Amino acid sequence: MAESNLIMIKPLSRIDPRLRSKAFAFLEKLTEDDSAPGLHIEPIKNSADPRVRTGRVDLQFRAVLFRLTGANDVSYVFHGIWNHDDAIRIAQRTKLKTNPVNGLMEVIEATTPKEEPATSTWVPSPGAPTAATSTADAGPSPATGPAAVTGTAPVLGATAGTAPAPAPGPAASVESAIVPTRRPWQVAATRAELVNGLGLDEALAERVLACADEDAILDLAGAFVDWRSNALLELAAGATVAEVKDRLEITEAPGRDDSDQAILDGLRQPASQGAFTFVENNDELRRIIEEGDFGAWRVWLHPEQRKYVTRDYQGPFRLSGGAGTGKTVVLLHRARRLAKANPQARIVLTTFTTNLADALARDLSRLDPDLPRAQELGDPGVLVRGVDALAYAAIKSAGSEISAAVDDVLGAPSSHVQQRTAGDAWKAAIATAGSDLPAALHTPHFLQAEYEAVVLPGHITAQADYLRVRRPGRGVRLNRKERAAVWQVIEAYRASSRVEGTLDFAEAATVAAAHLTKQAAEGQGHRADHLLVDEGQDLSPAHWQLLRALVGEGPNDLFIAEDSHQRIYGHKLVLGQYGIRIVGRSQRLTLNYRTTAENLHFALGVLDGGTYADLEDQPEETGRYHSSRRGPVPQVIACGSMNGELDTAANLIRGWAEQAPQEGRGTETIAILVRDQYQRDRVVSGLGERGVNVRPVDREAVKPGPPVAMTMHRAKGTEFSKVLLFGMSEKSIPKIVRGADYSVDEKQDALLRERSLLYVAASRARDELVVTWSGEASELLPRG
Ligand SMILES: Nc1ncnc2c1ncn2[C@@H]1O[C@H](COP(=O)(O)OP(=O)(O)OP(=O)(O)O)[C@@H](O)[C@H]1O
Questions:
Q1: Is 323 annotated as belonging to a binding site?
Q2: Which stretches make up the UvrD-like helicase ATP-binding domain (predicted)?
Q3: 325 domain residue, yes or no
């Protein structure tokens, strides 16, 4: 009996649900004893690679594998499962090889069996994807075969078919020309650099140079499973050969032969681990098979992601990246890496809302169900909490000692601060004490922003201090009289909260930070060793003060994931002002895993016209991001009336829901996103009247069942296969942007947040995106 290792290939690991249990049983047996008679592990006559084997999954299906003999053990590379005849043909033609320049392993398909594999000719297997309509069941699988298992030129990442969206209802006109798709492209490298520097063979280099537009190079990238897929994607995004090598951590390793050991060595390089993984045990194998492509993030990290997971930093680090570039995935893996390295470490993983924190907690369990989890702030293990929940936990654990911090921040001691201030408290304070306020400042929005950006962070408790405080980044200038008027309202607000025994969220975070800072100054230490922050762009000054106070300065103290294009709450700020000095420790992820290139292009189009700065106040550019996947161009549909728009939506959702089972998905992977709860409920009832059942989602998680409707804010952190953005008319832009009562700066910032909100919403769509409105279209929609 001979145990063996198993190496799974990323895109081929998606196995038709009907074959999952058989595939698992087969592979489990293979790792226990590859000579077990039921497996029928057999070499193939006239095969291009003598290492190739087929194995019997059941009467109809065969697995194709490669057997590698290392110094001490045997490993199998799992290539895929096909119908018997296809499997034999693929096994005859496919070969593993070591790249002569960089030593990485490659999967090559020979044009004919036993012919020296045509490394110089890329040969798509029958039915392999060549255009935007690549689907998960491309390849030689029969109708009953494994939809996800393709030929040697499989599709990367496509999880659902890309059938055109069902026709819109009556009284609607499709404005599909809004999004240009084909963008001209030219490789930023010479032929010699591609061949001698990167390691592409001559023919592939030729094909790369011949690609005239983005579609062509993306299609070419999708034809490979090994390191070349990511390398071509980087080239598609405009990288030079030096940049590709740097991002994928490709080093030169000439002289490696094609021996089994050389191939195994090549497989262990970071550039290979984005596509190949050594399966650790049967539990892991089961999860890889069961989760298929949806669990790919758990197993196959892009070399850049891996770098940010494993590297140590001597202080705060900032990882930026557009929607869907895998920032959250990095955070989850990094939390796990830190917890495994030191089980006693107190690791806090936090984000802006409770919903997002719940999603992080669920995904961390998916990543590693056995990871030690902390229940309370200060316990060893990983604690996952929303940032406001951290503040309240710190306040609760302080007991009556919190009184001094309340005094410090608010100017009067109190330990009765567990309740939250009512949402309309600023309005009430303006009504009580706002008579001297100029009209432009007469808004709860302005006062809350002033309070959170200037008053609380500075621990200002007296009018005299407010009158002379610096107000960087606040836009609106205030003279002395205006400041006095603002202060009167702030005092009224504080007085009312004092009577009620409440704190608002920003006050709670500031008070908690003050308490923790004092404790640390008294030598009582900090509550956490490592803090990992998601959605950093949405956090307020008080949050950053709290986070800085929770963890002492030191190695791996703060790791911040953020995307300033997705700031939909709060105001722009600069981290350095809150004791978080990044200086030179920031990097960006650019490969979008979630959305198709077409949807990404649309989403990025929404951002045009806004100017953005990151958390270090550096300009943030749009347009750097690229996607590995292709799909239909988003449809934008103008409707004559609300009723017409509802008819269109009903048609569309009905059609998508019918397609879902054929595409192997539940209907809850379809979402309608709207601007607010009122509209959400209106859509749900309007569709109900048209016989289409849609479930409104609020705070709860999305569960298997009918399509869902939710607000664009709630959609943050989620993703769906198909998304309808409903009601994208000019009227959907809220009053603060249109109304006369607001200052120019406030309006501009609010408009920027609206753009970001639409960008967030559009970037939730993995496969298909449709946008509808009635009346006048929102000015934020991209124009063709
Ligand atoms: N290495 C990977 N392999 C496969 N899928 C991945 C990988 N990394 C991320 N993904 C998938 O891409 C999608 C987006 O990932 P993630 O949520 O981490 O991105 P994000 O940058 O945090 O996005 P957002 O800013 O929009 O929240 C998820 O479906 C995730 O599973």
A1: yes
A2: 300-603
A3: yes
